[in-house]
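Example record for the data management plan.
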Amino acid sequence: MTGILAAQRYAKALMSLAVGNDQLDRVSADLRTIHLTIADSKDLRVVLRSPVIKNEQKLAALKAVFSEVSQDTTRLFDVLAANNRIDLLEQITRAFVKQVDQMKGVTTASVTTAVPISEEMEQKILRKIKEITASNEVVLTKAVDEKLLGGFLLRFNDLEYDASISGKFNSLQHIFKQNAYA
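Corresponding structural encoding:
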């Protein structure tokens, strides 16, 4: 929990710095790229989290991999290295992106279905989320999970709506376990 709070504080400080330097769009693009790179690279995650690798080596690796980032982003690397917090970089990027999206009125949502959804259904989902959240824009990530059997699982903000058949089965199973009928 402490790591999450620290990551949110670093993200907020970086956002203030980027806004003050009129570099929010550039820093936001940098951190989105860094977040995706860390998510896609197991080796980079291992390096950043390793207690054996020294901070100077981690910092050098970050500056080599992300040599094209803005000066504000490079300063973040330096501050994290100085404070022995480079392992929080993935959480910081996630928190930063979330804060920027909130500021710009963008809602990120994900829908998981048993079969791929149609364009018409996707548009209905987008309209409903916009209506519920009063967002300017909704970014929808789609996934297919055959284990749902049917229906869908929708997540946005801190809400989850489970309208899947497997979710209904799990709910029934939970009810039967609680009420042992003879």
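Summary line stored alongside the record: The chain has a mean pLDDT of 89.
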